## 1
Amino acid sequence: MSRLGCLWQPVPAFPRNGRAHLYIASQCRALGLRPSPPTPIAVAVMAIYSFRMQVISRGKGRSATAAAAYRSGEQIKDERTDETHDYTGKSAIYGSEILLPENAPERLSDRATLWNEVEQGEKRKDAQLSREVMIALPVELSHLEKETLTREYVQREFVERGMIADVCYHDFDSTNPHAHIMLTMRTVDETGFGKKQRQWNRKSEIEQHRKAWADHANAALEKAGHDARIDHRSLEAQGIDREPQIHLGAKVMEMEARGIRTRVGDESRRISQENRDLARQQAKHKQLQRQIEAEKTAALVSPEPEPAPDKTPTLEQPSTQSAQPKKQIHPTPERSQRDWELER
């Protein structure tokens, strides 16, 4: 294998994420070479709009107890499967809380009790257990402001509609503060859970949640005195000619931070580079347009120049007096010699 093979180039033979870099790294180690690290992924330290919703389904091999344990960094035993999910060693968890509707029993404020009752209430092997909302929190806000913003949004959009919300705050001391919100899918009263509410999964409902998050976040930013704002609409709807970025995820960010190149990271870098090139082209175009407008305005405001004097040489016309020949007097027989002499 040549030394060029140790450069970080895509390897089509390994379609799964992470396999290509492992192959290249092993070949480089065999040659005693050290592969060059990937270019760091640029992260904008400013408020961004990120709202993702997914359904945690038993049909995809997932469980609500495992998801809740992972997001909260706790240990939860699944009483249905007798499996214990222990994520007490997970870092970057700032805090968590459970918000209950007014008619929910107090016992469901315990995380293990809550999600075990959810698991036991679903009998189908492909049952939908929970909806999860993931939102990026504005980095401009303080930790307390981030918590207050999230709590008010969750209370208004979900809890007041009858859902129980399990909220976990992550990475508050990084450039990627965010919250995971696990939501129940059935009605709840003093006795426990009731019927499943399919309308909560409607597209119109989800779009309302997306817009509401932008409204809540912008109100919090304005209240805190920040100029930054976020927009829930797509870039195309906003009239912005830019390719949208992709979600990296915690695992990809961790691998990239350790110098391990990933296909997801490569795609993110490609999008960032193309957007930078496009931004430069747009800036040059705008500058040219401003120059053209300035020249047009200057042409309209400036007065019309006076016509230049005609410097074409002209021939002088001789005066009438000088052009007349001198009068000649000649004697005639009728005039006397005396008159002739007097006239002379």
## 2
Amino acid sequence: MKVQRKSAVIVSGVALVLAAAIGGGIAIGGGDSGSVAAATSTPGSTTSATSTSSAATPPSVSAATPAPAATPAPAAAVAAPVEQIAKSDPQPPVVKTDEGPGLRLGMSEEEALATGLLVNRGVDDAWGCHTYSTTTFPDTPKAVVISPTTGIARLTQTSAFRTFEGIGVGSTAADVRNTYPQARESRLGFSVSPYEEWNGYHVFLMSGEMPFLDTDKVQRVRTQWSGAKCFLD
């Protein structure tokens, strides 16, 4: 009988322990569910707070930096007018002598006589052109030749005369050839028309005989009018 009672007591104790364990598990499980719910709701609260904070704080606006003022472009330089010999101008100033007011190609006979540089009139040539000696070349009867229609057709230059390129009395044949490769050689010397826009040409009378040596020198310079109806040997 005692054994049976002990067994009954043990079974009752085990039952109580199991009931307590089961009850504790349910309590623990309920506690876990509550904790999970609370944890789940926490981010929502955080998001709400964050949204409220974002709405309350206005976005920062950076101050606009003003664009630098444009530097005005420098005014374009205006080129100074350049004086050129017009193609219609029959003569550049190179034909003028250094005697008084000077003689020039195309000058009328009346104007030439007014300079006082013409001294003796010679024999007219076959074309009816008038010939004169000058104060510089009193013994040269054809130092100046004047056409009745076109004016001075030949002008014998003074020893001081130089072309724009520097050729004159004392220059050598080599100087003439190097300066004017287009110069034509004849028994008297070299003739050259150095400017396309000019109707005149120069004759460099040389020492020596043709063909001229490079060391032969210019003895006299004549400036003559192309196309003039005068006998210009």
